[in-house]
Amino acid sequence: MTPFSSKTLYVHTIGCQMNVYDGEQIARGLAPLGYRLADSLKSADLIVVNTCAIREKAEQKVFSFLGRLAGLKENNPDLIIAVGGCVAQQEGERILSRAPYVDIVFGTRSIDRLPGLLESVAATGRRQVAVAMDGDAFLTPRPPENETRVSGFVTIMQGCDNHCTYCVVPSVRGPETSKPPADILAEVEALTAAGVREVTLLGQNVNSYGRKEGLCAFPELLRMLNDLPGLDRIRFTTSHPKDLSDGLIAAFRDLPKLCNHIHLPIQSGSDRILKRMNRKYTRAVYLDRIDRLRAACPEIAVTSDFIVGFPGETDADFQETLSIIETVGYDSLFAFQYSDRPAAPAARFSDKVPDPVKAARLQQLLDLQKRITLAKHRSLVGRVETVLVDGPAKKQTTGDPDSVPAAAWSGRTAGNKIVNFTLTSHWKPEDVRPGRLIPVRIDAAFPHSLRGRPVDRGLRPSDAKGEKSHAA
Ligand code: 5AD
Ligand code: SF4
What's the CATH number for 293-379? Predict the structure, then answer.
């Protein structure tokens, strides 16, 4: 028996998919110490807060969440609170003075040390801080137990060497490091053995995978994964446009399991701003890559990230951003108001854009994209899309335009669009369940989702692979 036997753990994750992956690994890594997942924050013996520092708002969210924990600690002095992730890395000891009830601060390369840090707290009663960047970039992966999801994440790279001037990632996640292909394959195999059908490979810039270490190139890794039995779909995020190779473009054409979707953050449509951001590509280069992707894979869905109000961004620069959104015709995008990150060079740039101007530009951009997304969704009406079922549809009929009748199923297309559908009489209920690929004819388009019916072609679900072909 360890001193921790039959205790409960609550992991609260803020931020990106990489943090979600870390959160899962933290929970699995603590299971051997007797920690099982708590039903609620209040009932937990250990709370792990997995933090994000990418924008000021995310960091504020961290400290407001930590504020909520003060009362819990007062009511239960035995509660252990551990703070990990990017804010922990960035702030280190300062977290202990800002939130004195925190017991452990562990950085992005110290996750594997958490069990030892817990033991030190138990043995000494003293608070622990571990934020050295010399730890392992990768956790010892732990296979999932009781996996119920259809989709899983695998982090294949850590850190970033690009130093975009607005970005805190290189300072909080360290230099770029790639996980060996054999470890990635083993992790994906463990996921598929547990029932996962779709995997998303995670890294700050997967296009430069393996380059530094002389491992295989990213398209080769994709080829190896494409050959794994039991895996139906492969996705990845994020790609840097400057490193988008012809090999990767060919992979979209050639690999049946690679989903027709690329997330290719551009950040701005203005060459002047791209230069100040240190993005190392121009608008023309980006558009050329999009053309080549579409020539190789006409169905490809393209999504992106944008920052509005970067220091020095004029109205003319912002018009360039709006125009590239129209020119590319993104399927969807994420857009953010620029926020200073003290560790990033742009925090010291002059010509800061006032907040109301940033807010107005963001709204204008989002309004434009809303129109484009709806048009994209409408263009799919009448087509058959292969949908990977992930569970029952969440929304019930409420008058909401995206709502679906009760008992409907939900899943995603290869292009990552949500499709809700209800079974027709041609489909036996036992043929449709999470993890199945079902051909669905789209008959209605909404701002955030599509609705359809499984095709009545006497098709059995097992015939519904062929992610790259869309019979009309
Ligand atoms: N301010 C606003 N947005 C940012 N991003 C990264 N750093 C900042 C910042 N300082 C956005 C970029 C990136 C996404 C993950 O977050 O668009 O692609
Ligand atoms: Fe940040 Fe740029 Fe690296 Fe992305 S590529 S993590 S934006 S520094």
Answer: 3.30.750.200
